Amino acid sequence: AASDCQGLSSWAGWYRAPWWLQQADMMTLFASFGRAVSPVEYERHLVDTLDGGVLALDIVRTTVAGSTSPLNNMSLSFVLLVSGLGGGSQGGYVKNMATTLVRRGCSVAVLNMRACAGSPLRNPRLFSAYRGSTDDVRMGVRYVREKLLGGGSVGSKADVFILGWSNGGTIVTNTLAEQASGEGKGHAGVWTRVQGGASLATPHDMAESTRNCEERVFSRWVYNRYVARSVVRQI
């Protein structure tokens, strides 16, 4: 796929961090505290799930440039964003990506997983760090096609893509794999099918990533504590 993308067809097009920002923890901290964030206005839709839960779908309406993200337009691609573990539509990296996609002519929404970004928690199931959230992604895609894009031939034929970071990237990858294999729950033909997706900063080995967060002193005191506080707030 990289050979088909002009910006990725050679190593010269790939991002190279400056010498002082090549250590992973430094890069994470700098992105969290030193990055400018584009203001984005959302319109929230609550999506009921089949097991009694609820997802919060935030539709991008206005960005820093005053651009709007139009719907019901077959000439535009619709991109559904899935944030990292416990995050949501208010994350700086999510807002910046949403702004960039709108500027490039896409309609954009952020799928906040269960209990994230202020979405209500109606049953004992939280967001999942593994494959348990793929059915929620399909539910979000189905809502986009049937409700936001108007259903019918327009909704069923629209180009819908999914993009996720970190744990959200793992969920996106598994969603794409299940679309090809037919495994998992919540498939509904064209209504839950996506035309493609992208995973950014995705852990290739969830078990090893978990051990890394638990065994390294810095990870245990920074990342684990952050995630733990996030879960406590959500429940």
Detailed description of the structure:
The chain is of the alpha/beta class. The protein is 37% helix and 17% strand. The protein has helices spanning 24-33, 92-103, 134-148, 152-157, 166-181, 206-215, 217-234; strands at residues 41-48, 54-62, 78-82, 107-112, 160-165, 196-200. Strands 1-2-4-3-5-6 form a six-stranded mixed β-sheet. Helix 6 (206-215) packs across helix 7. The longest helix is centred in the last third of the chain and has 18 residues, at 217-234. The chain starts with 23 loop residues before the first helix and ends with a helix. 34% of the residues are buried. The model has no long low-confidence stretch (mean pLDDT 86).
Quick gist of this model?
The protein is an alpha/beta fold and 235 residues long.
Sheet bearing the most strands, described? 6 strands, mixed
Straight-line N-to-C gap: 40 Å
Overall pLDDT metric: 86
Task: Give the low-confidence spans.
Answer: none
Strands in their spatial order, largest beta sheet? 1-2-4-3-5-6
Q: Helix content range of the residues, please?
A: 25-40%
Shape label? globular
Radius of gyration (CA) equals 18 Å
Order of helices and strands: HEEEHEHHEHEHH
Structural class: alpha/beta
Query: What is the number of E strands?
Result: 6
Oligomeric state of the chains in view: single chain
Number of helices: 7
User: How much of the sequence is in beta strands?
Assistant: 15-25%
List the keywords:
globular; 235 residues; alpha/beta; six-stranded mixed beta sheet; 7 helices
Set down the secondary structure blueprint.
Blueprint: H1 24-33, E1 41-48, E2 54-62, E3 78-82, H2 92-103, E4 107-112, H3 134-148, H4 152-157, E5 160-165, H5 166-181, E6 196-200, H6 206-215, H7 217-234
Parallel strand pairs: 3-4, 3-5, 5-6
Antiparallel strand pairs: 1-2, 2-4
Helix pairs in contact: 3-5, 6-7
